[in-house]
């Protein structure tokens, strides 16, 4: 999920500009949207953890929400902010689902071991870095006129989705091996 976030970050200001959100409000609009939905989702999942705890559907739902959010951020900008901002909100919900599941696992199932928490933070940081390299790399290729803006967005989204899918499948395979 953090790969997705790192991948879409370079495009958020461009999408918000195309959507007609003034420059002075872009940071506020983007940050407040995905952070608020993430906070609310964490609150809901904290209050009712049975909604997603220890279910195989959790990463699938979170993955779909993140991809839908990223697609809305990329594709909907010409349609206006009414689709870009809900896309970022959808992304925030998906991010919270993954984050909550990871924290519950490291605290309950992992016994709150330092290694579990450190591993979770390491994977989040690596995801952010890999996603940022993909997003910024495609953004740079677009700026150098190697690929079109549309091609750069779809390549970013495609690479991000591919990497996330590979990691989710590997996670499922690993979880079945440990049972």
In short:
The protein has about 180 residues and is mostly helical. It is built from seven helices and no strands.
How does this model look, in words?
- The chain is an all-alpha fold.
- It is 82% helix and 0% strand.
- The chain has 7 helices and no strands.
- The protein has helices at 2-8, 12-18, 23-47, 57-75, 81-109, 114-143, 149-177.
- The radius of gyration is 17 Å and the shape is globular.
- The two termini are 25 Å apart.
What's the arrangement of secondary structure elements?
Layout: H1 2-8, H2 12-18, H3 23-47, H4 57-75, H5 81-109, H6 114-143, H7 149-177
Helix pairs in contact: 1-6, 1-7, 2-3, 3-5, 4-5, 4-7, 6-7
The ordered H/E elements are HHHHHHH
- CA gyration radius, whole angstroms: 17 Å
Helical residue percent?
over 70%
Helix/strand/pairing category: mainly alpha
Residue-averaged pLDDT, rounded? 79
Strand count, sense and barrel status of the largest sheet are: none
Residues in β-strands, percent: under 5%
Q: Whole-Å distance between the termini?
A: 25 Å
Q: What shape does the CA trace take?
A: globular
Number of helices: 7
Which stretches are low in confidence, meaning pLDDT under 50 for 5 or more residues running? none
The beta-strand count equals 0
Task: Give descriptors for this structure.
single chain; 7 helices; 179 residues; mainly alpha
């Amino acid at each position: 999920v953090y790969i997705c976030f790192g991948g879409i970050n370079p495009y958020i200001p461009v999408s918000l500009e195309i959507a007609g959100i003034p420059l002075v409000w872009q940071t506020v609009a983007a940050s407040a949207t995905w952070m608020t939905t993430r906070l609310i989702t964490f609150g809901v999942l904290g209050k009712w953890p049975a909604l997603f705890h220890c279910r195989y559907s959790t990463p699938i739902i979170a993955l779909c929400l993140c991809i839908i959010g990223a697609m809305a951020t990329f594709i909907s900008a010409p349609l206006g902010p009414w689709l870009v901002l809900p896309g970022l909100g959808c992304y925030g919900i998906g991010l919270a689902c993954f984050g909550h599941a990871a924290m519950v696992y490291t605290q309950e199932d992992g016994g709150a071991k330092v290694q579990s928490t450190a591993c979770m933070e390491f994977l989040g940081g690596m995801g952010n870095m890999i996603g940022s390299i993909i997003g910024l790399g495609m953004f740079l290729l677009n700026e150098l006129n190697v690929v079109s803006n549309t091609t750069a967005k779809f390549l970013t989204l495609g690479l991000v989705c591919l990497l996330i899918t590979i990691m989710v499948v590997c996670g499922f395979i690993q979880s079945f091996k440990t049972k």
